[in-house]
Write the structure tokens for this entry.
Amino acid sequence: MNKAFTREDAALEDDDEFSSAPALPANAPNYMTPAGFARLKAELDHLTGDERPALVATVAWAAGNGDRSENGDYIYGKKRLREIDRRIRFLVKRLDKAVVVDPLERRDDSERIYFGATVDIVNDGGEERTVTIVGVDEFDPARNHISWVSPMATALLRSRVGDTVTLRTPAGLEEITIADVRYMDVSSH
């Protein structure tokens, strides 16, 4: 079999490696906030409606220029096309499994921590921190958005204001106290 076919077939198996997002737990839905769903959908729409068609036109033009083995536009275009197709497959899979949960619907039950909660915590050293529990495709450490499958979120889920929970960290066990819980539009912060 030709190496080109081998590489392309291998790319089909590597769909999930294209993303930096962690894998979903087996048979678990892909919980997302409305803002996270909109971001992934916008990326998919951009790839399928703008970037891929323009690249296909470039590859077709480059293919018509003669010898493909030494044609940089053609070689790069085909490689980039495989990357885009792999990302499209990944996004389609994630969006198909998506269960959109609006944190604003939990506003009345603000004592307990569920998906979409913004939580103020205090560790046993007295350090305060605020985290927001979001989907695996939305985590962003710079914004203190943690995935609902992360160890911290797992420890916090279903707890109430005033509860102290134990968090398992690489440095050992850490006690954290829940100071406040609120539900708000995740896209605004």
Remarks:
- Confidence is low (pLDDT under 50) at residues 1-13.
- The helical segments are 3-13, 34-63, 72-96, 151-156.
- The CA atoms of residues 6 and 61 lie 25 Å apart.
- Strands lie at 30-32, 98-100, 117-123, 128-134, 145-147, 164-169, 172-183.
